[in-house]
Design goal:
With 405 residues, the protein is α/β, with parallel strands linked by helices. The protein has a domain at 64-222 and 319-404: Rossmann fold, CATH 3.40.50.1820. The chain contains 17 helices and ten strands. An eight-stranded mixed β-sheet has the order 1-2-4-3-5-6-7-8, sandwiched between helices. It has a two-stranded antiparallel ribbon with strand order 9-10. α2 crosses α3, α4 (122-135) runs parallel beside α17 and α5 crosses α7. It is found in: Cell membrane; Microsome.
Length: 405
């Protein structure tokens, strides 16, 4: 029994342990979180393989079931569910203050690879409640539909419809919101949707009310190059390894998993893929990234690749899905921007490159970079997934909003 126990302990330690950079905050807690994610994901993929259910449906069910075990107080904020132009939203309203007429507001779009989580989970419920209280702002959290129920561009359409509905003068008046003090924000895949929505709103000539700010938290912004320095540096980093991010993209586009390896080595944007040529200059990380991020990494540019990938998944080059590929004329129209990035994150360079392109287009940008943090950390502030990195990034994000909104 003792031998079996020792063997089990050794196997558990082997499964949990990952070599992490010395700068990572609370490494052992992160290893445990990642090991839990991997175990759950492997179970869900087994269920998918047995054709009992789609792995993302099972994974989301488990996330929501675990989430129900948590209790987050919201006595100080009025929380209501509503429907904006057919899209479910959750609205967080702080109590009215004496002599106060109008409040500022944030439209928030949650992350989760376009497939997981919800505006109603405690992680996002807690974040939006704290935002509403700290900023004395009305926070609208968008409950867009998820993969595999729907795929691109439906998530984008949901986020856009809900936002445009909220921006109507009569709806803003209903919630006592100042039309000149509205931000659009989101994290990870929600940051992708927030950036895409902002770009689309900037092109709408009939829109009378526009967002004052956009705030993007470790956003995923491109599927053109899966070998940027941050993708190479953090390819096995919790909680978002490179292969997992590629699979999220494939699921989002309802694509074929057989393309995963070709995407990983950039076969879809090889030099002989004509559809990609016009976009290459917009994502040249050798010129967009500072040397501290480029380090000694080299670009991975295939001479010959697979043009059929773009033919079968044209959304890989659709700016509604990959906002980093937008033309300069659209970037010039974007509002004042905040972008939060983490060193230990495959998506770090997406945010840094977008900040640089916006800055080159004349947009005022704040790039808030954290050397000791990892992808997804900002929502991990509730026990047992509470990280100091989560508190640190959340406070910095809210502070910027408070000073600029």
């Amino acid at each position: 029994a003792w031998v079996l126990l020792a063997a089990l302990a050794a196997l558990s330690a082997y499964y949990v342990y990952l070599p992490l950079p010395g700068t990572v905050s609370e490494p052992w807690k992160l290893m445990l979180l990642d090991a839990t994610f991997r175990a759950v994901q492997q179970t869900c993929h087994l269920i998918h393989y047995l054709r009992l259910s789609h792995h993302l449906i099972v994974l989301n069910y488990l996330i929501c079931t675990f989430d129900k075990l948590k209790s987050v107080s919201s006595e100080d904020i009025n929380i209501t569910d509503a429907v904006f132009d057919g899209v479910e939203v959750r609205v967080f309203e702080p109590p009215a203050k004496r002599d106060e007429r109008l409040k500022r507001s944030v439209v928030y779009i949650h992350g989760g690879g376009w497939a997981l989580a919800s505006a109603r989970t405690s992680l996002y419920n807690n974040l939006c409640r704290i935002m509403a209280k700290s900023l004395n702002a009305v926070v609208v959290s968008v409950e867009y539909r998820l993969v595999p129920e729907v795929c691109f561009p439906e998530q984008f359409h949901d986020a856009l419809r809900a936002t445009k509905h909220f921006l109507q003068p009569d709806i803003l008046a209903e919630y006592s919101v100042d039309p000149s003090r509205i931000a659009i924000s989101g994290d990870s895949a929600g940051g992708n949707l927030a950036a895409a929505v902002c770009q689309q709103l900037s092109k709408d000539e009939h829109l009378t009310i526009r967002p004052k700010l956009q705030a993007l938290i470790y956003p995923v912004l491109q599927a053109f190059d899966f070998n940027t320095p941050s993708y190479q540096q953090n390819m096995n980093m919790p909680v978002l390894p490179r292969y997992v991010m590629i699979n999220y993209w494939i699921d989002y586009f309802n694509g074929n998993y057989d393309f995963a390896h070709s995407l990983l080595i950039n076969n879809h944007t090889a030099l002989d893929v004509g559809q990609a040529l016009s976009f290459r200059g917009r994502l040249n990380w050798t010129s967009l990234l500072p040397s501290s991020f480029k380090k000694n990494y080299k670009p991975v540019i295939q001479t010959t690749g697979k043009a059929e990938i773009i033919q079968e998944i044209p959304a890989l080059l659709d700016v509604r899905a990959v906002p980093l590929l937008a033309e300069n004329e659209i970037l010039e129209l974007q509002p004042k921007t905040y972008i939060l990035t983490c060193e230990n994150d495959v998506l770090r360079d997406d945010g840094v490159m977008y900040a640089k392109r916006l800055e080159n287009a004349g947009v005022e940008v704040t790039l808030d970079h954290f050397d000791d943090c990892f992808h997804g950390c900002m929502i991990f502030t509730i026990w047992p997934t509470d990280f100091s990195a989560g508190i640190q990034t959340r406070n910095s994000y809210i502070k910027w909003l408070d000073e600029n909104l």
